[in-house]
Design brief:
Blueprint lengths: L3 E4 L7 E5 L4 H11 L5 E5 L5 H12 L3 E6 L2 E5 L11 E2 L4 H12 L4 E5 L2 H4 L4 H9 L3 E4 H4 L1 E7 L3 E2 L2 E3 L5 H11 L2 E2 L2 E4 L7 H8 L4 E4 L2 E4 L9 E2 L4 H13 L4 E8 L6 H8 L3 E10 L2 E9 L7 E2 L4 H4 L3 H9 L4 E4 L12 H11 L4 E4 L2 E5 L9 E3 L4 H12 L5 E4 L11 H9 L1
Parallel strand pairs: 2-17, 3-16, 6-7, 10-12, 11-13, 20-21, 24-25
Antiparallel strand pairs: 1-25, 3-5, 4-5, 7-9, 8-9, 13-15, 14-15, 17-19, 18-19, 21-23, 22-23
Helix pairs in contact: 1-2, 1-8, 3-7, 5-7, 9-12
This protein binds shikimate-3-phosphate (S3P).
The site of shikimate-3-phosphate has 11 residues, from α7.
Length: about 425
């Protein structure tokens, strides 16, 4: 049982500038795709979060040599290609590692078994297993091929054209990575465009990939072993963007943040709510847009968010809900049912936490309606449900409460953002 972490209400503005740590999504891709170059690849600014460490551990067990040149510069030596792991590979809490690796392992010439922690073991895997089987993959999984553990007997794969029923970058990426080993051209179409880091990294490494809005296709490719530099994570920056927007007199700069157009929904939504956000400087690095973001305190108003926007804010909805409590009027989120299948059931987690803090809200199967301009009540303990983003959102909610709160399981922040509290402290000193 973890200790209860106490958060005190804040009574000073956030000020100053901080460097935002490495993007989790891009770090995962840099390592897994880098390992498919059959060469040595340098990755700078690799994420220090536990999930990205799980990815490196898995690659190591598949015979890739990993060497840290500094705290966050990693060298992968994949000259000998991937080799069979002698043991079950534990993916920890990482859905991205699990789904991507299922695609990669399906096309290898060896046998693999993968498992995960309690939360990952509950998450749906049929979304990748089903289409991979259509490509000829030999995969078995618990609970009628829907849950971990998964075993994969690598085999010859054939390309398919697949219309994904959901806009999921993990599904798209698993199929693109399997497509690198398949005969023919694999085509994936999504209902709305999900984050496109996989496509960008594959293009940067000269893969045979074609991108046409929501349709991506790939063929067998020799990948170029170019160095990869990872920008800061906009999903981590989001917590500070919301905090600075709602804490009076705040004025902060978040440096080196990835500004990929499929990830900046949080900026669009906060701006629609009336936030004062300015992009100060931007450039392209390894196919990704990167820049600094200035955020100043502003009066927020409620907003309606519909399904088309959800993929670009999928990981930011918990912190948007906290922003909504401070806004004038109602904030409506719909079309976000997939949030129920993340590290926790995030719709239930958000709603139960905010209700404990006295917020008036209505939970829906695919979202919620939060009534804003609430004074948050303290004197309660919020649960994190083994979910890093719920833990960090609870922390920001705690700062806005009238009395201290407790957070049970705050240590889950380490999954994506072990530097979270240090960064916060830098803005309050
Ligand atoms: C991710 C994609 C999203 C997101 C997850 C990371 C990725 O999941 O929620 O945290 O790195 O591709 P889905 O693609 O399943 O929506």
């Amino acid at each position: 049982m973890s200790k209860i972490f106490k958060v005190n209400p804040i009574n000073i503005p956030l000020n100053g500038s901080i460097e935002i740590p490495s993007d989790k999504s891009i770090s995962h891709r840099a390592a897994m795709i880098g390992a498919l170059t059959n060469h040595t690849v340098q990755i700078s600014n690799y994420s220090q979060g536990a999930d990205c460490k799980s990815t490196l551990k898995i690659l190591q067990s598949l015979g890739v040599e990993i060497e840290y040149k500094s705290e966050n510069t990693v060298f992968l030596n994949a000259q000998n290609g991937l080799k069979e792991s002698k043991n079950i590979m534990n993916m920890g809490n990482s859905g991205t590692t699990t789904r991507f690796m299922t695609g990669i392992l399906a096309g290898q010439n060896f046998y693999s078994v993968i498992a995960g922690d309690e939360s990952l073991t509950k998450r749906p895997m049929a979304r990748v297993i089903k289409p991979l089987k259509l490509m000829g993959a030999q995969i078995w999984a618990r609970d009628s091929d829907t849950k971990l553990p998964i075993s994969v007997k690598g085999s010859e794969l054939n390309a398919i054209s697949y219309q994904s029923p959901i806009a999921s970058a993990q599904v798209k990426s698993a199929l693109l990575l399997a497509g690198l080993f398949a005969n023919g051209e694999t085509v994936i179409e999504e209902p709305f465009k999900s984050r496109d880091h996989t496509e960008r990294i594959l293009s940067y490494l000269d893969a045979n990939i074609k991108i046409n809005n929501n349709i991506v296709s790939i063929e067998k490719s020799a990948l170029a072993p170019k160095p990869i530099s990872v920008p800061g994570d906009i999903s981590s920056a989001a917590f500070f963007m919301v905090a600075a927007s709602v804490i009076k007199d705040s004025d902060i700069i978040l440096k080196n943040v990835g500004l990929n157009s499929t990830r900046i929904g949080i900026i669009d939504v906060l701006k629609q709510m009336g936030a004062d956000i300015t992009i100060l400087d931007n450039k392209f690095e390894c196919g990704e847009e990167v820049g600094d973001i200035q955020v100043k305190y502003a009066n927020l108003k409620g907003v309606k968010i519909t399904q088309d926007l959800i993929p670009s804010i999928i990981d930011e909805i918990p912190i948007i809900a906290v922003a909504a409590t401070q806004a004038e009027g109602a904030t409506i989120i719909e079309g976000a049912e997939d949030l129920r299948y993340k590290e926790s059931d995030r719709i239930a987690a958000i709603c139960s936490g905010l209700v404990k803090m006295g917020v008036e809200l209505e939970e829906k199967p695919d979202g919620f309606i939060v009534q804003g301009a609430n004074k948050l009540k303290g004197d309660c303990t919020l649960e994190t449900y083994h979910d890093h983003r719920i833990a960090m959102s609870a922390y920001i909610a705690g700062l806005l409460a009238n009395k201290p709160i407790g957070i049970n399981g705050f240590e889950w922040v380490n999954i994506s953002f072990p530097e979270f509290l240090d960064k916060f402290e830098q803005l309050t000193n």
